[in-house]
Each structure stands twice: as structure tokens, then as C-alpha cells.
Design brief:
Length: 116
């Protein structure tokens, strides 16, 4: 059974950093691009990033460019989202999805809070 489990969220001060992890099981994750999405309370789901299956290609939404970096370790079946310079606009529940597909099944997500 395909499963992606997010972890690493938490509370940080503005300007702080977090690294989110997305651990894959039940499928060959190295065959898939992996996307990070986020959803804040009362807001629409927003695509944050997408990384190709090989990790050679990455894409980011404009609001996180230069602050967030996604990378992957296929040997560990894990994809990461390094978030630096976190801003008050970044708090949300963050999810990873296969094939960067917003219509794919979503897991539990991991919450990110930014507060002083």
C-alpha cells in the first residue's frame, strides 16, 4: 500500500528554520516525483514545491523561492523540505504527495507554526 508519512513540523519564531521529512513506503518512490503542498485554516491548498524522481529538477511557488529547498534521498525513500527564513505567511499543515499531484491521496500532514 502506497504511503507517505510527513514529519518535522513544529513551532518556530519568524526567521527560523524547519526541515520536513516525507517517508515513503509500499512503492518505489524513486519512480515518482514528490510534491509538497500546504493548507492553512480556511485557505485553499497551495502547491509549494515539486521534485523530479531523480531529484535533478525542482520547482517552487514564487512565495518560497530562495527560502525553501526540496531534496530527496531515494536510498532512504525520503523526500525533504528545508524551510528557512520562515514567515508569518508560511504556517499551514504541510503534505507530501506522489507525482506532485494535488488530487492524489493525502496523508496526515505535519503542522508548521510561526510565532514569536
Amino acid at each position: 500500500q502506497l504511503q507517505l508519512v510527513e514529519s518535522g513540523g513544529g513551532l518556530v519564531q519568524p526567521g527560523g528554520s524547519l526541515r520536513l521529512s516525507c517517508a515513503a513506503s509500499g512503492f518505489n518512490v524513486d519512480d515518482y516525483g514528490i510534491g509538497w503542498f500546504r493548507q492553512a485554516p480556511g485557505a485553499e491548498r497551495e502547491a509549494v514545491s515539486c521534485i523530479s524522481s531523480s531529484g535533478d529538477t525542482t520547482k517552487y511557488t514564487d512565495s518560497v523561492k530562495g527560502r525553501f529547498t526540496t531534496f530527496r534521498d531515494n536510498a532512504k525513500k525520503t523526500v525533504y523540505l528545508q524551510m528557512n527564513s520562515l514567515q508569518p505567511a508560511d504556517p499551514a499543515v504541510y503534505y507530501c504527495v506522489p507525482a506532485c499531484d494535488p488530487f492524489a491521496a493525502w496523508g496526515q500532514g505535519t503542522p508548521v507554526l510561526v510565532s514569536s
